[in-house]
Amino acid sequence: MSSQDHSIVDGVAELSFMPMQIADLDAVLKIELVSHLHPWTSGNFRDSLKVGHWAYCIRPQVDQAIKGSFLDTNVLWAYCILYPAVDELHLLNITVSPNLRKLGLGSRMMAAIEGIAAVQNIPRIILEVRPSNLAAVNLYQKLAYEQIGLRKAYYPADAITGSREDALVLAKSIKLDI
Fold it and tell me: What pLDDT is stored for residue 162 in this prediction?
């Protein structure tokens, strides 16, 4: 990635949230498999799409595209899966490409997700996170998410031993203009 790509990704480039399609799954899985201890499978993503979860692929906007760079609109930067319930938006999966981490994309995506909740009149976002995922825990704390619970042995931790890891349940109230 060139320094020009970095500066644009850092704060100038607008994120384009495009509905995830079956055709996106190869790119999504490529990131998913290197990003998570126990990644979602193709079937997990297909099921989410089939049941109507709000699934988005995040890429640079077309007007900022630079072919052959990270600003190429064919390059997947990140993705997220959201589950809208009656009074809360459940964040099921949010993942940034390893090459683009620590550039503020996670914060910008969360701001956009909070905006989606506000527009849809959904007063709260809820999510689970592994306590061992310090980068994510720190991000959510910085964004004023508060722990509202703990799910014991929620995540698989080691397939060989069968050990499991707890999940922190975090939430944030969204200001709605009513």
Answer: 86
Please enumerate in sequence order all residues whose Cβ is within 8 A of that of 73, keeping only pairs 6 or more positions apart, or say none: 16, 59, 60, 61, 62, 65
Measured in whole angstroms, the distance separating CA 172 from the mean position of its chain's CA atoms is 16
Question: Is the pLDDT confidence value at 71 over 70?
Answer: no
Q: List, in sequence order, the alpha helices (H) in the chain.
A: 3-7, 25-35, 42-50, 105-119, 134-142
* Token pair belonging to 94: 């949010």
Predicted TM-score (pTM) above 0.90 = no
177 token code pair: 């203009």
**Is residue 68 pLDDT above 70, yes or no?**
no
**3-class DSSP assignment, residue 118:** helix
Rounded to an integer, what distance in angstroms lies between the CA atom of residue 11 and that of residue 15?
10
Take residue 86 and report the two structure tokens written for it.
């009656």
In whole angstroms, give the CA distance from residue 157 to residue 48. 23
Which uninterrupted H or E stretch holds 90?
A: strand 89-96
Residue with tokens 């995506």: 109
List Cβ neighbours of 170 (8 Å cut-off, separation of 6 or more).
126, 127, 128, 129, 140, 145, 146, 147, 148
